[in-house]
Amino acid sequence: MMNLHAKPEVSEDMKMIPVENHGVRCMSIGFLLDKDAPIVWRGPMVMSALEKMTRGVAWGNLDILVVDMPPGTGDAQLSMSQRLRLSDALIVSTPQDIALIDARRGANMFRKVQVPILGLVENMSCFKCPKCGEKSYIFGEGGAQRTAEEMDMKLLGEVPLEISIRTGSDEGKPIVISSPNSASAQAYINVAEKVTQRLKELAEERQMGPEISL
């Protein structure tokens, strides 16, 4: 999706140097494997890989480090919450009930291990016909909004299902680069701005600390 295929180089202190495109430094286990090679790992191997992808990479100075996690509440999510000091968790889900079940479980798991929830993003919220512009709610309408309200989370944005997003992703050209003024690009930009603002707010809340009254 970022049009990156090279294997990462290794620094003098034996850390992997992230591959970069569009001003974003990236690291993926896919960079280290042959094409189409299966990843058949049990828990300990998953935890080892997470350690290499985080502490074993020469990230340099970053504004934000985003870790794209699979849905669910397995070893990967639990290891992340235990081994890294996470600022927050951002929950992403499509609108249908069956997907939101996993989103709810994921949010509850992170809350249980004391990781704050940044908010919820609805992906593939609707399909906009490229010819007539009519919106079709293929996966249902308003599912993420209702879930956010029921679970006391903020809905940070709704990203539509559009052909241009899919084709751009396949070609390694993010929609915010290939068509920055489009409605789809603006949806991503709005989510990014809200995420950044929420991170600032939560950081300020942590610095304030608790009030003690006698």
UniProtKB/TrEMBL annotation:
UniProt-listed InterPro entries: Mrp/NBP35_ATP-bd, NUBPL-like, P-loop_NTPase, YlxH/NBP35
Gene Ontology molecular function: any one: ATP-dependent FeS chaperone activity
Organism field: Digitaria exilis
Protein's recorded name: Nucleotide-binding protein-like
GO BP terms: iron-sulfur cluster assembly; mitochondrial respiratory chain complex I assembly
Cofactor(s) in the UniProt record: [4Fe-4S] cluster
A Pfam match: ParA
Highest rank taxon of the organism: Eukaryota
Family: Belongs to the Mrp/NBP35 ATP-binding proteins family.
Keywords for the protein's UniProt record, in alphabetical order: 4Fe-4S, ATP-binding, Iron, Iron-sulfur, Metal-binding, Mitochondrion, Nucleotide-binding, Transit peptide
Any one cellular-component term (Gene Ontology): mitochondrial matrix
Compartment annotation: Mitochondrion
